[in-house]
Amino acid sequence: MEENKLRSSNWFGRKGKDGFIYRAWMKNQGIPADMFEGKPVIGICNTWSELTPCNGHFRELAEAVKKGVLEAGGFPVEFPVMSLGETLIKPTAMLYRNLVSMDVEESIRANPVDGIVLLCGCDKTTPSLVMGACSVNIPTLVISGGPMLKGHWKGKDIGTSDVWRFDAASKLGQITNEEFVEAEACMARTQGHCAVMGTASTMAVMVEALGLSLPNNASIPAADARRKVLSQLSGRRIVEMVKEDLTLSKILTRQAFENAIKINAAIGGSTNFVIHLLAIAGRIGVDVNLQDCDTYSQGIPLLANIQPSGENYMEDLYYSGGLPALIKEMDAIIHKEALTVNGKTIGQNCATAEVYDRNVISTMQAPFKPESGIVVVKGNLAPDGAVIKPSAASSALLKHSGKAVVFENIEDYHARIDDDTLDIDATSIMVLKNVGPRGYPGMAEVGNMTLPKKLLEQGVTDMVRISDGRMSGTGFGTVVLHVSPEAAVGGVLGLVKNGDIIHLDVHARTLQLAVAEEELAVRRLAWIQTETIHPRGYVHLYQTHVEQAHLGADMDFLKGGSGSKVTRDSH
Ligand code: FES
């Protein structure tokens, strides 16, 4: 492609038969000839699906984007990619994150687009789209779908984090089945993604913190008319970005990633942040590692009082000033000069923001909680690291030693957890194996195992839990996740036996299995791989190429990018 020539002109600007074919088959959609004349073509990558309820309103958002693109003199084209509905997809949406990223990457590169708007919402729809776009690296802007409005049930505000409480209450007979079912509709009462600081909200914050969206993208509720305004303005802006050749790699610098880690700490973001951020960094080629996620969040307090670490909801964050107001509180510690998609720096975007409710956004000097961020613990049980979110944990358990109660896989856990004969008490440490990237496969969100019924009945509300899986961003508890290497590839986690003593010390950042190396060597020799590799299809590809959690669980051959050039023509 020549300098300053639109990428799409390699299709629509062609003379002769090729140009005829490229243009003619677009015209059957009712597109006038002048739409092809030197106008930036903006792809709107849509994850709308009735099987992704959190993204169910995306057709309306796409229409708003189109309006903006047309107003700015561009030519919008909407296209679908595989969508991942967190609540419905089995065995876990994470299994398909990398597949969607491939869909997105190839869809962008193969088509005549000059710029891309990514419509992201439910958890994995954000990282998968951003990862795919990074591997192409053309001007790209992200719009999130926005959170649901908070639910109301029996006079109380409710959100996704209450699902775990309802489950425990139902187990204990504290609520009836009718009440349980009634609460479903009361919680999910509007369009949008989970209303708490779960993974979807964390991802929306991440893209805004990275500079990939217009200000306030993270928290405007899905049902608020201003979500459509933001979409229309984003449509206008992406056309300008094409003219400026403002590609992803100019925004996704090391500084942007450091900002995102710090801001994730201040908002109490999901542990899933780590795995997705590392995967995105790997695609754009910025050297960010697991330790950075701990290092840059150290000393940053929890500023946002939002569930599951606090009490409020995403809409409250918006009414209190939004993410720009929270970022402004962090003025002294972020890289204010980091560029964002609107052509301004993050510092400029937040300069005039104000906090309207200190109960929702606190100050660095008087934070909502002094401890936040993601802590990386290491030791013989997790030589490459494991993560824990202290703000969602019980402070009394942050330093704890206990006897392991081991579940070989999630089926074993379900079969025995409520067995009255299970030898477990409140000081035990629950260990779940084979739920990692390769073992599950897909690294399921099962790490915050519900406690045994008999302990719930005794009033126990938290225990240390350790696994190679993930936890829903809406979950809470003293839960050590992403143990790397995972059990299924021969990690020490796979060698833990019932009764072994485990020492967790979050402040010292250690996770140690008190078993002598000689004994571990004996167990290693006797270890048998129990999880099988699927013989065919995508799952086979995934299992044979997925990397470990501490590297972002991307597939080894997807790291980096291939740019936007298409080297061969078929016409
Ligand atoms: Fe889609 Fe929570 S289920 S964001």
Task: Describe the protein.
The protein is an alpha/beta fold and 571 residues long. It has two domains: 39-149 and 190-350, Response regulator (Rossmann fold, 3-Layer(aba) Sandwich), CATH 3.40.50.2300; 375-532, 3-Layer(bba) Sandwich (Glucose Oxidase, domain 1), CATH 3.50.30.80. Helices cover 34% and strands 12% of the residues. The strands form four sheets. A six-stranded mixed sheet has the order 12-11-10-9-13-14. A four-stranded parallel sheet has the order 2-1-3-4, sandwiched between helices. The protein has a two-stranded antiparallel sheet with strand order 5-6. The longest helix has 20 residues, at 225-244. The protein is globular, with a radius of gyration of 24 Å. The two termini are 17 Å apart. The model has no long low-confidence stretch (mean pLDDT 95). FE2/S2 (inorganic) cluster (FES) binds at residues 54, 86-87, 122-123, 160, 193-194, 198, 200.
